C-alpha cells in the first residue's frame, strides 16, 4: 500500500476495495473457428476454381448419391446404410462429383457438412488436425442447439484439440448430439473428399519400437485409417443424424477397410466415378462408386 502514497503521512484508510483486472476467457466457439480449415469447405474461396461436373455429365452417379442422401431412409433396405464410398483413379472426376453434390444439397436446403482434402492446397487441408473441428463447426451451424454444448466441451477440456480424432469426435460431435433432439426426417450428409491425399501428421518425438534404439515413423495410411474409423464410429452411433460419403482413390487402406467382412454390413456398395459411375450399396455402408 505504501507504494501508492509515497511520502504520505497520517493517512487513514477506512474502506479498501481492490479490483483485479485479468484477461477474459475467450469465447470457446471463436476458439473452435480458429482451428478449422476454411479452405476445406466446398464453397470456400480457396476452392473457387475447383472442377465441377457439367450438367450433362456424371448424371447417374450424382443422381444416385443425392437420392440416397435425401430418400435413403424411405427404403427399408437402405435405412441402415450410412456410408458410401466414391472411388476411382486420379483425374476421373471424384472431386467434381463431390463438389456438385454439395452444391445441389445447398441449393435444395439439405444440410451438407464438407471437408475437401488436397495435397496441393493449404496445410490445414493436407493433414487431419483440423478435420474434426471443421466438421463440428459446420454441424453447429446447421444445428444451432449444439453450439452451447460444443462450447461447454471446449471449456471443460482445454487440451481437447490435442487429442486423437476419436476423442475429439466424441466430445465435439457425438456427446452434444446425444443431448439434443434432431428431426429424424431431415436429411443431411457429411461429404469427405480426397482422404487419400491426407498426409501424415508429424509429432514431436516418435513411437517407441520393441527394439531398443529404433523408432517407428507414423505413416499416412495410419492417419487415413484413423479418419475412416472415426467416420465409421459416427455413422454407427444412433445419435448421428447424417449419412456420410467418402471419396478417394482405390488405394490399399481404403480397399481393405471397405472390403473388410466385419464392415460390409454397414456400407453401401462403392460408387465408381467414370463415364457413368454407378453407386452401389451395402447394408449400413454403401459399396464404393468407382470412377473410370
UniProtKB/TrEMBL annotation:
Residue stretches making up the Nephrocystin 3-like N-terminal domain: 82-202
Record keywords: Repeat
Keyword S-adenosyl-L-methionine: no
Annotated region described as Disordered, given as residue ranges: 268-292
Entry protein name: Nephrocystin 3-like N-terminal domain-containing protein
InterPro entries, alphabetized: NPHP3-like_N, P-loop_NTPase
Amino acid at each position: 500500500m505504501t507504494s501508492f502514497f509515497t511520502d504520505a503521512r497520517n493517512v487513514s484508510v477506512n474502506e479498501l476495495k481492490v479490483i483485479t483486472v485479468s484477461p477474459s476467457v475467450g469465447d470457446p466457439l471463436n476458439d473452435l473457428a480458429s482451428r478449422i480449415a476454411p479452405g476445406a469447405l466446398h464453397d470456400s474461396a480457396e476452392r473457387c476454381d475447383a472442377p465441377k461436373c457439367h450438367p450433362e455429365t456424371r448424371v447417374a452417379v450424382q443422381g444416385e448419391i443425392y437420392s440416397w442422401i435425401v430418400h435413403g431412409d424411405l427404403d427399408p433396405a437402405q435405412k441402415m446404410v450410412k456410408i458410401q464410398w466414391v472411388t476411382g483413379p486420379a483425374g476421373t472426376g471424384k472431386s467434381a462429383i463431390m463438389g456438385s453434390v454439395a452444391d445441389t444439397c445447398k441449393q435444395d436446403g439439405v444440410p451438407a457438412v464438407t471437408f475437401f482434402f488436397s495435397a496441393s492446397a493449404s496445410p490445414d487441408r493436407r493433414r487431419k488436425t483440423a478435420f474434426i473441428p471443421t466438421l463440428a463447426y459446420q454441424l453447429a451451424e446447421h444445428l444451432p442447439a449444439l453450439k452451447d454444448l460444443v462450447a461447454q466441451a471446449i471449456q471443460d477440456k482445454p487440451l481437447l484439440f490435442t487429442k486423437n480424432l476419436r476423442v475429439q469426435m466424441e466430445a465435439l460431435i457425438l456427446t452434444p448430439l446425444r443431448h439434443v433432439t434432431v428431426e429424424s426426417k431431415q436429411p443431411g450428409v457429411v461429404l469427405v473428399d480426397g482422404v487419400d491425399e491426407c498426409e501424415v501428421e508429424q509429432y514431436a518425438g516418435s513411437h517407441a519400437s520393441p527394439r531398443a534404439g529404433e523408432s517407428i515413423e507414423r505413416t499416412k495410411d495410419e492417419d487415413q485409417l484413423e479418419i475412416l474409423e472415426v467416420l465409421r464410429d459416427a455413422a454407427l452411433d444412433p445419435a448421428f443424424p447424417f449419412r456420410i460419403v467418402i471419396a478417394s482413390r482405390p488405394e490399399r487402406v481404403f480397399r481393405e477397410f471397405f472390403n473388410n467382412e466385419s464392415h460390409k454390413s454397414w456400407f453401401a456398395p462403392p460408387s465408381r466415378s467414370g463415364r457413368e459411375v454407378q453407386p452401389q450399396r451395402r447394408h449400413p455402408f454403401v459399396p464404393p462408386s468407382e470412377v473410370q
